[in-house]
Structure formats: C-alpha cells, structure tokens
Design goal:
Elements lengths: L13 E9 L2 E15 L2 H5 L9 H15 L4 H15 L3 E15 L10 E15 L4 E14 L24 E11 L11 H18 L5 H15 L3 E10 L2 E3 L14 E3 L5 E8 L11
Helix pairs in contact: 4-5
Function: Catalyzes the oxidation of uric acid to 5-hydroxyisourate, which is further processed to form (S)-allantoin.
Keywords: Oxidoreductase, Purine metabolism
Catalytic activity: urate + O2 + H2O = 5-hydroxyisourate + H2O2
Length: about 290
C-alpha cells in the first residue's frame, strides 16, 4: 500500500476585519488568515475516519471569535494565539502554521472630529507566518508589494559578455524593484519575552527603505545584500532576511528619430521579462530556514 507523506489541512484565506471604537476615533485591522494543521491524520486519509478532524469550518470560526475576544494587536500576536490554541486544545494536532496577510489602511485626516475614514495604502501587504509544534515557535514576518525606485546612483557594467550579449553598460540608470521581504525572528520559546511585533515590522521596513535609498548601487545584487545586512545589523531580534527583488527595467527611449536627445530623462518601463534577484542574508552562525521558493 502506498504510504501517506507530509500532509496538513485547515481553512485558507479567512478574511477578517476588526474595528476598535475608541469614541469617535476608530482603528482598523484587515487580515487574510490561513490556518494549516497537522498531526495524527493518518486515519482520515487512509480509513475515512474523521475522529481526529477538527473541521476547517471551526478553524474559520475560531479566527472570527478570537478577533472579537482578544482583538488583533499585531498579525504575529494573533497568529501566535491561534497556533497555541489549536496545538494545545486538540490532542491529535501537533503542529499549526498560521499565515497572515495584512492590508494596510491609513487614516484619512480631516478637520472634523470623526476619525472613521481610511484609505488603502497602495499595493503593499504585510505578511506573517507563525509555526508552532507545542515547544518551539518560528515567526517569519515580511512584506510584499513595496515598490521603490532610485532615479540615479545606480550603475551596471563590467559584466560577462558572450556572443548573445547586447546590453549596453550603464553608468547612470534607474533602479526600481518591488520588494518581497521575509525576516525570521530569533525568538523561539515561551521562556523568553516575545519581541514587539509592531515596532519590529515598522523598523525592519524602515531599514529596507533607507538601505535601498542610501546604497550607491553597482548591481541590484549589491543593493539586495545591503538591504538585508542593514536589517540584520540594526535589529538584533532578527536572524535571517530573505529578499526577492524583481529588477523593473527602465530602458532609455531612442528619441533620435524625432531629432531629440535623451539625456537620461525619458524611459520605457518594461513590465516583463524582468531580472529576478533573490538571496538570504544571515546573522553569523544562523541557519537559513526561510524557504527559497
Ligand atoms: O543589477 C543588475 N544585475 C544583473 O544581474 C543584471 N542583468 C541585467 O541584464 N541587468 C542587470 N542588473
């Protein structure tokens, strides 16, 4: 009989919006929560017994009930609360992995007293993944869709040229990318106090942005390393940073047919194909654990 390999089950993409009303000032958290549980699940797969199966519908309900009962202080804290609940309340469940995407809303500032209007902040999504096996925690936070661009301080030259190479060397080019970053916290057990997740996220994001802006770049690879290294150097609670950076090429448009010169002013922004630069940056002695795919 073929053997059952790794398996998990749970409810994916529960969308929960939690409002906190502090008088006329309201606060908003908007999450997409995916729960994956694993443990003693051989019988349901091999023999059709549901005796160990907490329904995925219950996982969805738990997300909503916890949002009401405990609020959502941060994506990470909410994920930790859920993971702990599933692993400690259900004997057959040995592991929980909670993935959360958080959509950022910014308050629309008005002269009036009411503070209940919000605008979505671009395409940027905050991410958190919490894994728990009853003993150890692994928290990987991150972001996607943070689009950044430098209009100068970027060169690319000195690369290998073979018979297919047509790329012109660039001494001053636009460097643009859509940052996909994940960072793993060193915190792994309840004996130590958990990091401040909200501050950790804001500061890691700030370091990624300032390193992108301040690096004089000879390649996107070099910029990537500087971004990851800045987070590792400035945030002692973070051991590993994984960055995936699409190189959003901006090509100078040939204006000569119109009798015009292009002094690095008019570009064609290509959406594909794009170079894809990916790497992990680690604290000395730390192991790479964030998946590379
Ligand atoms: O920063 C870059 N890195 C590359 O590896 C590369 N390759 C390429 O065609 N353009 C660029 N730019």
């Amino acid at each position: 009989m073929p053997t059952l390999g790794p398996n998990s089950y749970g409810k994916a993409e529960t969308r929960v919006v939690r409002v906190v009303r502090d008088g006329a000032v309201h606060h908003l958290k908007d999450l997409n929560v995916s729960v994956a549980l694993s443990g003693e699940m051989a019988d349901v797969h091999l023999r059709g017994s549901n005796a160990n199966v907490l329904p995925t519908d219950t996982a969805k309900n738990t997300v909503y009930a916890f949002a009401k009962e405990h609020g959502i202080a941060s994506a990470e804290e909410f994920g930790i609360r859920l993971a702990r609940h599933f692993v400690t309340s259900q004997q057959p469940i040995h592991r929980a992995r909670i993935r959360i995407e958080e959509y950022a809303w910014e308050r629309i500032e008005t002269a009036g007293r009411a503070k209940h209007s919000f605008a979505r902040r671009g395409q940027e999504v905050r991410t958190a993944q919490v894994s728990y096996d009853g003993r150890c925690w692994e928290v990987v936070s991150g972001l996607t869709g943070l689009t950044v661009l430098n209009t100068t301080d970027s060169e690319f030259w000195g690369y290998v040229k073979d018979r297919y190479t047509t790329l012109q060397e660039a001494r001053d080019r636009i460097l643009a990318t859509d940052v996909h970053a994940r960072w793993r916290y060193g915190w792994s057990d309840d004996a130590r106090p958990a990091p401040d997740w909200e501050r950790g996220h804001a500061e890691a994001r700030g370091h990624l942005l300032s390193a992108f802006a301040e690096t004089y770049s000879l390649s996107l690879q070099q910029t990537l390393y500087q971004m990851g290294a800045r987070v590792i150097e400035r945030r002692p609670e973070i051991d590993e940073v994984r960055l995936s950076l699409p190189n959003q090429h901006h090509f100078l448009v040939d204006l000569e047919p119109f009798g015009l010169t292009n002094d690095n002013e008019v570009y064609f922004a290509a959406d594909r194909p794009y170079g894809l630069i990916e790497a992990t940056v680690l604290r000395d002695g730390a192991e790479p654990r964030i998946p590379t795919d």
